[in-house]
Amino acid sequence: MSFADLESGALQAPRRGRGADATRALVFQITTAVSSYRRLLNSLGTPKDTPALRDQLQKTSHKVLQLAKDAKEKLTSAAEADKSTGTSADKRVADMKLAKDFAATMEEFRKLQNLAIQREMAYKPVVPQGAQPSYTMNDGRSDFDKMPEQRALLAEPNR
């Protein structure tokens, strides 16, 4: 395969919603998204751990779950179709292997989600110095955002 083949349209992506190729493509997309999730997860607790990274981690998780929902529907319908007497043994074996691959990928994703929960609780994201939002509406006249030590120092009378 070359770039010329892709540009000419000789090889096209499988159409969504049709047959075993679409289901295979969904399982591949899930596997790819889980790999991306793992890569993002490995950045938690490092200097790269930012609110944007955590947002991307959450978006990737939602993407995996949506793809998994679609793949489960397709695998279920394929299993129902395989129950008919006219289905070849090769197709049944291929569908079972695809279902097994899907289950293994989802089990890996479940483990990664548990690890993500642990790391998100253990580490706080790094917020760049200039990007810290101001939560007070009264131009800094409130002491609520100060640390307890700072409040104690402010409460002491001037000497």
UniProtKB/TrEMBL annotation:
Indicate the principal place this protein occupies in or around the cell.
Answer: membrane
Query: Do the record's keywords include Transmembrane?
Result: yes
Q: Which GO terms describe its molecular function?
A: SNAP receptor activity; SNARE binding
Q: Which InterPro entries match?
A: SNARE, Syntaxin, Syntaxin_N
Q: Where is the composition biased (Basic and acidic residues)?
A: 140-149
Asked if the record carries the keyword Plastid, the reply is: no
Per the database record, which ranges form the Syntaxin N-terminal domain? 8-121
GO CC terms? endomembrane system; SNARE complex
Q: How does it sit in the membrane?
A: Single-pass type IV membrane protein
The GO biological-process annotations, alphabetized, read as: intracellular protein transport; vesicle docking; vesicle fusion
Region Disordered: which residues?
128-159
Sorted UniProt keywords? Acetylation, Coiled coil, Membrane, Protein transport, Transmembrane, Transport
- Gene3D superfamilies reported in the protein's UniProt record: 1.20.58.70
Location in or out of the cell = Membrane
Q: Which family does it belong to?
A: Belongs to the syntaxin family.
* Protein's recorded name: Syntaxin N-terminal domain-containing protein
